[in-house]
Amino acid sequence: MREELAQWDFVALAYGVGLVALAVLALWAWRTMVNAEARRDAMRRR
Amino acid sequence: MHIYANPTRFLALAKWLMPLCFWSGLSLALGAMAWGLFFVPPDRLMGETVRILFIHVPAAWLGMGGWTGIAISSAMLLIWKHPLAAIAARAIALPGMVFCAVCLATGSIWGRPTWGTWWEWDGRLTSMLVLLFLYAGYIALTQAASREGTTPKIAAIFGLVGAVNVPIINRSVVWWNSLHQPPSITMGKSAIDAAYLTPLLVAVIGFSLLFGGIVLMRMRALIADAQVEARLRRRALDDDVPLAGAAAVMEQA
């Protein structure tokens, strides 16, 4: 028996997982870079 | 390449290269995904789920490419002791792990409607899962070395040894029976129709540039952390000098 599945649901889920993971990774990488460079620059000024 | 082993020279390069890679990569990746989602026809066998290709394949490519980058940086660290090689390898590890996890997750989601199962313990899926665990082990080793303030030599050896898994992943669908399809793109040949191949290539280029941009961000962060740590250590030494002098005077007295 062939199981009927809504294919677009799986497409949306895959794209959702991928985009959320990439957005979290990019934001985290950008934030850690900005914070680390601000800490270094503040220490240089002191 | 040896020229950029100097952190100051590298930072000057990374300052303009990072936003260029990131924004061009993001535009290309999002464009390719929109192309794949809305303008590509459904496949004869896989139907609409073929659209998952445009996120799954770049993620798989970068999961494996990330480890290849770790192996090359590890070799550079062990052979030439480049100060940036350890930082590059460490910077690649987390983005590589995320892309590997995205590949596994999207593959599993794709498997349910096409194979009828979320997971199968076959060569391709298992070797990719092993790669995810290798990334986790590598991150743990580099963090331990960073905490102790030592050169991550053990992590570098682990990075080189773990590279054995990359060709295993690549050839797994040829060596063993698998639900996963055999390679569709080989040297100079492709079994994929141009309607899918062109947006797929754009997606691979876009995600690779995005990956490069994120790795450069991580490298800038790790270099800044190292500079802060070096300055703090120097200050601590400077503070210790008067104390050491006082201790010597006390001893003489």
TrEMBL record, chain A:
It comes from the Bacteria. The keyword Transmembrane applies. The chain crosses the membrane at residues 12-30. Keywords: Membrane, Transmembrane, Transmembrane helix. This is Heme exporter protein D. The lineage of its organism: Bacteria, Pseudomonadati, Pseudomonadota, Alphaproteobacteria, Sphingomonadales.
UniProtKB/TrEMBL annotation, chain B:
This is Heme exporter protein C. It is found in: Cell inner membrane; Membrane. Required for the export of heme to the periplasm for the biogenesis of c-type cytochromes. One of its GO terms (molecular function) is heme transmembrane transporter activity. GO terms for cellular component: plasma membrane. Keywords: Cell inner membrane, Cell membrane, Cytochrome c-type biogenesis, Membrane, Transmembrane, Transmembrane helix, Transport. It comes from Erythrobacter dokdonensis DSW-74. The chain crosses the membrane at residues 20-40, 60-80, 92-111, 123-142, 154-176, 196-217. The keyword Transmembrane applies.
